[in-house]
Amino acid sequence: MKKLLSFLLLIILASCGESGNAEKSEPVNILENLQIMVDTLTIEASGEIFMPDMLFAQAQNADGNLIFSFYEPDFEFFEISLEKRQLLKRHPFQREGPNGIKGWMVSFQMLDTDEIFLRDELGPNLFGLDGIKTKAYELDFESILGFKAEGPFSQQDDLHISPDKSRFVFLPMNFGEPVKGLASIEIKNQTGKILEIPALDLTSKFQVIWQEGNSSAFFGDAIQLQLINDQFIVFSGATSDVYSYDYQLDSLRLITFDHQLVENSKSGEFETVADTRERQMETVAQIRKQITFNKFYWDPSRNMYFRFGTKNFVMPSKDVQRSADCYLFAYDENLNLVGEKFLEEFKNIPYSGYFYNGQFYSYTPVADEAGFAVFTLKF
């Protein structure tokens, strides 16, 4: 009986050992055999006259089937159907009066209530699609956070409102200084805090500022904020590390990745202040030879996130076309890295886009018409 028990124990230990080895096996790369087909389509505009090059400020609605774009020449929001590939409606807005957009439109965000959260020169507001301002927010951000903004482009950079309209979330900073952290303000109680994001601190090492008199310019990597799939993601071009902020639980978590095709972050030392514009661009060109990570895109048909990256990026100029070594990364719904692919046939990546029915749509004018480049991913 003792021999039988010993024999069974050996089998169990062997099984455990096999299980442990299986866990250490190489991760599956779901993009290993990725194929991408690119096509273009035009938007039926029913004879409407406008300049397609002026429709690049865009946002997708909560259902994912509509794109809204601000058309500054006529102060209108265009409503475009991805399903019908058609301009459905032009929503006029006002420049003056109680419902006017003051100064310029800085950024906007579509809410699932068919409202537009819009930040103009004076601050954040809520509008209906009829152009009527339903709410003007007048919170004193500086006193709530204890952070002094030194200019109009400092404190409310990347300002978002949570989908339930309970919080403002943004990246407070002053020009030429590192981002202070992730700011979260509870609107009803007018309380807030700045959450530290130390994993992204290295970003400031890969930024170059040039200033001369009243002129200044910033180039390089930046910490950015996006709202995607009902969560906020804080990311940087300098590192694959990201933070996920759950606005309902008011909790922040760091997510790290172990890339195999590219480095997990930039490295090296570069000057961060240039004495001439030419020197600034030379330094940025050296920085962009290394990996740069871009924003995330959510594909609801696959329950997956995707993200582009570039190396050896060449900035466009009069005689040089924009080009880069391009990569695509895939993540599951919990933001685990599950695939990466070098896009050998690509020379540049889309600036922005949206997934619809499993295809990636990136706005681009087609001749004199509004249109999209449509990327079909097969893997």
Keywords:
mainly beta, 4-stranded antiparallel sheet, disordered N terminus, 379 residues
Describe the structure.
The chain is mostly beta strands and 379 residues long. The protein has a domain at 197-348. The chain has three helices and 27 strands. The chain has a four-stranded antiparallel beta sheet with strand order 1-27-26-25, with no helix packed on it. It has a four-stranded antiparallel beta sheet with strand order 2-3-4-5, with no helix packed on it. It is globular, with a radius of gyration of 24 Å. The termini are far apart.
Helix and strand content put the structural class at mainly beta
| Number of helices in the DSSP assignment | 3
Count all strands and give the number.
27
Strand-and-helix sequence, N→C?
A: HEEEEEEEEEHEEEEEEEEEEEHEEEEEEE
Mean pLDDT rating = 90
Q: How much of the residues is beta strand, in percent?
A: 35-45%
The main pleated sheet reads as:
4 strands, antiparallel
Tell me the strand order in the biggest sheet. Answer: 1-27-26-25
Distance between the termini: 54 Å
CA-atom Rg in angstroms: 24 Å
| Envelope shape | globular
Helical percent range?
A: 10-25%
